[in-house]
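A reminder before we start the practical. When you read a complex entry, don't treat the lines as separate problems. The point of joint prediction is that each chain is placed relative to the others, so the output describes one connected object in space. Small molecules and nucleic acid strands, if listed, are placed in the same frame. In the example below there are four entries. Take a minute to note the order of the lines before looking further.
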Amino acid sequence: MVARAAREIAPGMVVNLGIGLPTKVVDHLAADFPVCLHTENGLSGIGPTLPPEAANRNLIDAGGAYVSTVPGSAFFDSAVSFALVRSGRLDLTMLGAFEVAETGDLANWKIPGKFSPGAGGGIELAQKARRVIVLTTHTDRAGNPKLKAACALPITARACVNRVFTDLAVIDITPQGFALRELAEGVSIAEVTEATGAALVLPDGDVPTF
Amino acid sequence: MVARAAREIAPGMVVNLGIGLPTKVVDHLAADFPVCLHTENGLSGIGPTLPPEAANRNLIDAGGAYVSTVPGSAFFDSAVSFALVRSGRLDLTMLGAFEVAETGDLANWKIPGKFSPGAGGGIELAQKARRVIVLTTHTDRAGNPKLKAACALPITARACVNRVFTDLAVIDITPQGFALRELAEGVSIAEVTEATGAALVLPDGDVPTF
Amino acid sequence: MRLPDKTCAIEDAIARIPEGATVMVGGFGVPGTPFTLIRELVRQGQRNLTIIKNDANEKGMGIDHLIANGQVARLITTHIGLNPRAIEMLNAGHLAVEFNAQGILAERVRAGGAGLKAIVTDIGLDTELAHGKPRIEIGGQPAMVETALRADAALIHAHRADVFGNLDYVATARNFNPLMAMASDLVIAEAEAVMPLGDLAADEVHTPGPFVDHVVGLTEISEEYQVVRRQA
Amino acid sequence: MRLPDKTCAIEDAIARIPEGATVMVGGFGVPGTPFTLIRELVRQGQRNLTIIKNDANEKGMGIDHLIANGQVARLITTHIGLNPRAIEMLNAGHLAVEFNAQGILAERVRAGGAGLKAIVTDIGLDTELAHGKPRIEIGGQPAMVETALRADAALIHAHRADVFGNLDYVATARNFNPLMAMASDLVIAEAEAVMPLGDLAADEVHTPGPFVDHVVGLTEISEEYQVVRRQA
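Here is the predicted structure of the whole assembly.
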């Protein structure tokens, strides 16, 4: 799933990888792949994550990991960092999710009464990146679908998600709702349909496997 | 008059000197006087004006003069430059004027149908500097008063001028209107009253001379 | 002309912050947090503060000392997920927290620093962060007004300062520092090194000196900056 | 990962600007004006342009070539006092000119670059520049809405660029360049020197590479930069 998601990154893109699963996508890119990774705390051109003994106390990503630079990196303040996001210079972001609606609504910042740490930069990434990809388990720990007809939780942004990668499938948000594009190896269409909380548009013909 | 105006600059101030007469004020400051001169095209810490053979093609003030830096100068973009002006970090500006009203209104950017080059940075300097001083001849070339009950020309900013230095006098803008503070050497109160287009509040006792 | 010297003892600089003040604090996570200035504010004990900061640091670190010491009445922030004490106090009603989208907090602070009254944005229009904010149409599209933020004081952590208050920052320790250094009536910068005039190149200054009121040289670097060994 | 190379032939970069485009042009007076890119735009001859620039340069210099060549329909600016041709054409009704307060033009451009819809300010409220602009109250005080500006293309003059498009500027040649380099769909930067990746220090970059589309290395410096001997 993470390896498959990495193939969404086209040469030349500026990409922001959210905290959690998305961060691991970078491990699946070739060393000379032409891409610029952005982190909202003020860096374009993220280099490899460093172990504590090699870390620079002043150089972290937005998730607090100690990262490095590459030749051509630039540092900037938080206003410029989000200027880049809001003005259309961020080609792609990959985010985690609590819920994704068939309309592309995303909820990933607040579970009322339970967990309310604040949205951080998530709203702007979801609302303004040119392409928004969600990486998530298909269901939550209790087995309830995370892909639903509508979000029950407070939303992060409306109609923002383009594609969802889960442990079971690759699903696009289309004007017709969720559309199945690919299946994880060994997973059946019935299993995906069962685990999805809204109608799933099936493709004509075979479904490719990843 | 210019020498007298220079005494308005207190130690530690950040000061913007407008094009024309105000620029000459700097010649009357001691070499070690603690002051920071700002120019709106992006420099704090203006140093002496340079002759063409010593000039840097990339280093001008807002009037196009070739200037220099001092130890501790900083360059910045036009947004930061006016951020400094609008957010209250500019202690004093000295500007030229077409007309000054007894309410402190200033007109110095447009003579309709005749001369309309645009206001440049003048509106923000006049409206937001903590203290606005005008340096001007007391009358125009035709002998008409430049200090008036109200401005006839399009205004730059309302109620912004604190003090006016002319070839005849030093005049404050007060809640009672124009108030005479000092006379140029050899000038009588009657001459100033005659050349002023509004009532002039006279001080009790002697009027100092500059 | 020469540029004035703004170096200042930390006690005198922080003593200018009154009870009930609104205080901006730089930093995003650890980098750029003015730990030494915060410690002095804890020592002096001004209460009823409104703190504007990207995050609430972690428990036992940075502004958490102010929160633990009961000095903070209100926090304007974007994310407090790494500080369980702050979350607990929020949930218990002991700390008022106003959440902002991160880039909007940055722009609201910058707007204050730029002498603007507000910005107009569509960020968060469909979220609960929009509640109570004035709506306005721009070019036929819905948007909302986010007012500018200014503070009575800003606590800034710089890499280097010259004595006039020109500052630079290093790596991701820049974050909110240059924005907050424009947006407060009293700007206090701690610097890892204080240089003579002329030692910071004019083209490489991040915060121009006219914005800064006091420069405090650090005699040692707070241990709170140390690289943290977190579990992977 | 490595950062992509954006170096480009000047003809190809400028050819992407269509007829009728809105074009931002850096510079304040001579410093920072992208004279070489302007010359190529004159050579290619795209017409009906809206130009956004602080000033109109001087007669026979910079964007005056575009005006003289009949390519400019509209100019959004702050001051055209040094260009008698532009004043004459304005007064004769042959050039539409929209005047802005200088710092407000800077903020409108920056707002476009920051993905904001508008800014709210009290600058110019009592002047004719306020005519037709929406009024709004902020904290009980009157203010007005100034919409963000974006352009189809921006022409930028940098001191140095690396091949990814990280830029720096020198002295007062910075001015509007970093703002316009954020606010356009197509950002073309000419640079006096083009460096390999890594030769611009990450802390000293003025315009981060992600904002820039094309980097054009200058083989010679336009003679229009020469120090002008004006009468005192």
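Discuss with your neighbour: DSSP finds four helices and 13 strands in chain B. What might explain this?
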